Amino acid sequence: MSIAKASGVAGFPLHEHFERPEQQVDASKLGMWLFLATEVLIFGGLFVAYAVYHYLHPELFKAAHKFLDVRLGAFNTVVLLFSSLTVVLAIHGAQQGKKQMVLWNLFLTIVCAGTFLVVKYFEYSHKFHSGLLPGYYFTNATVPSPDEAHIFFGIYFLMTGLHGIHVVIGMIVLSWLMFRAYRDEFNPQYYSPLEIGGLYWHLVDIIWIFLFPLLYLIR
Amino acid sequence: MSAPGKNYLNCKKGFASWALTLDHKRIGLMYLGSIMFFFLLGGLFALLLRTELLSPGHTIMDAKRYNQLFTLHGAIMVFLVIIPGIPASLGNFALPLMLGAKDVAFPRLNLLSYYIYVLGAIVALGSLIVGAVDTGWTFYMPYSSTTDGGVVLMVTAAFILGFSSIFTGLNFIVTTHKLRAPGMSWYRMPLFVWGIYATGIIQIMATPVLAITLLLLIVERVVKVGIFDPVLGGDPVLFQHFFWFYSHPAVYIMILPGMAVISELIAVFSQKRIFGYKPIAYSSIALAVLSFLVWGHHMFVSGQSELVGMIFSVLTFLVAVPSGVKMFNWLATMHQGSVSLKTPMLWALGFFVLFAIGGITGVFLGVLNVDVHLHDTYFVVAHFHYVMVGGTFMAFMGGIYYWWPKMTGKMYSEFWGAASAIMVVVGFNLTFFVQFLMGAQGMPRRYYNYLDQFTIYHQISTVGSYVLGLGFVMALITLLVSLKNGKTAPKNPWHGASLEWTHTDAVPIETNFREQPVVTEGPYEYR
Lengths: 219, 527
Ligand SMILES: [Cu+2]
Fold this sequence. Notes:
CATH superfamily of chain A: Cytochrome c oxidase, subunit III, four-helix bundle
Helix content of chain B: 55-70%
Low-confidence stretches of chain B: none
Bound molecules: copper (II) ion
Number of helices of chain A: 6
Strand content of chain A: under 5%
Radius of gyration of chain A: 21 Å
Mean pLDDT of chain B: 92
Order of helices and strands of chain B: HHHHHHHHHHHHHHEHHEH
Number of strands of chain B: 2
CATH architecture of chain B: Up-down Bundle
Shape of chain B: globular
Low-confidence stretches of chain A: none
Largest interface: A-B, 38 and 43 residues
Oligomer: heterodimer
Distance between the termini of chain B: 30 Å
Strand order of the largest sheet of chain B: 1-2
């Protein structure tokens, strides 16, 4: 029953079970906020696990985190912050009906996401080579107390891995939005998919903002 | 607009018109059929378990097979039957109608969550190919990372099903906020909607924690990360904290919709305005909030500190308050009403008695020192079944019988409906009341064997379970027979006053209402 019908507002594809355009936009935004709440709670479980083991092994966390590359982590933080800006600019472009601005900013956001993943790839492969891996696969002997250090790297891979999956999903969402923008589906009356996709991308950024200090900058 | 004689069932025909439907009513029926299938499967496993317990020692299966069967019974009943249960089937069908909406807020997401459910069900059954799981539905660590069998698949299934539940809850919350008919203020919403809304909050707030817990379990089993496994430096009690942080609220995902149905049934079959509308509505929200603060009562003997145990014990007592508020308000609603003992009302009265017993024994278990004696005994099994079957499932059956005429346009046989409801209540008490007695005497749960002194209790329980099983099968056959032989249902057979009865055709049209309903009074103004 979600066949688009004339809404009285030109260029706004209103679904049949809604009465007014604002109603449809509000509903989709509320839905996205609720979904973001579930995402925060999913990561919340990992943050709790981090807190528990940091509390149990403070010295170990301090020693093990030195094996992460702070410069690469900081670089990725800047990249993601910049991508949050480009997403906002894309929405701004849609509000003003500037198609090129939407397309270029979405493209830049996707490039940022890709850059992030490439850097992450180099970080991961370095750890694979040095045996800094979770659980049974941990083989590095240079870390202090190697019997327990695998827990830190287990948490590191879980947190950054789950975040990385979200970056990949974000790239898919952003590409789909770019395709729709290319097909002229957005206009100053109708751009809520961009806002909703943007909300998701901001969440991906914000989670990284928490991950970076927790993992790379342990005092 | 639909022509006369056309309704949501006959407007489109063919397999694809069902498989790809975005109509919340059809999706509700698809859920109902799937859930009932798994209910029968889980029930069959229960009967096999009870048959094994007919005599001490090996009766029809060995210990390993018994462990696998109770795990399957638990996992199917929890994740595939009771958690989706009322919201996904009756909620999907009735909630938009009750609000005066044309559909849920996100019809495509609604269909997607149905297929996520189907996928989860397939993966759960697929675990049988790798080898049946014997961990119990709680998947306690470190056992579930070391035992053989398809633990990863079963856990993945629960993970997938969690997302189906999240999307359903999200859809209903947004629908309630954004798609109410003109004049439908919050206090004019039927209490069913309040209950489903409160359930949605829990689905969204608790299920993600289960998702990450199960993900960690999978990673632990596959990569040996060592978060939960003490051999690797992990903490198994942390798993229990994570698991129950979801799974205690999850029992409210199961019971709140049951209470929501009962509020409708008690009011309609007493033909009296519900007593204490606001207390009932807010007690649902209170239960949703409290449900997040009591998870530690599952770990009184898991090595949590005495102080923490005491705090969780006191918080657990608080749960009895909103539950009691509901019970007394329902009682007051029936007082001096014109109570008619139609089949749905019989299920509701069954709920009333059984849930009262289940609720009060829950308080026993919440008492710290009593629980040290009773934990992991049949007392817990009996309590849980009194709440989940005696509570939720009785309400579910009552709800199905209540909305059946609206869903299908057919009236069923009152005689057979009433007979099966009575049979279920009798069989249920035979099965589970004796379990309180043997639990109090120390019969541990999850054992395929027992001491001779428990024989008579187990035999009564097993005979009871056959009566119970027969009652449920009769109840379902009564409904199926009505599809073929039932009289055509009138528009409003129970004289209900909410929109799904007053403003729709006998069987609703695809877009629910021929005209946009405008609401001018509450849902319980009978005349
Ligand atoms: Cu509990």
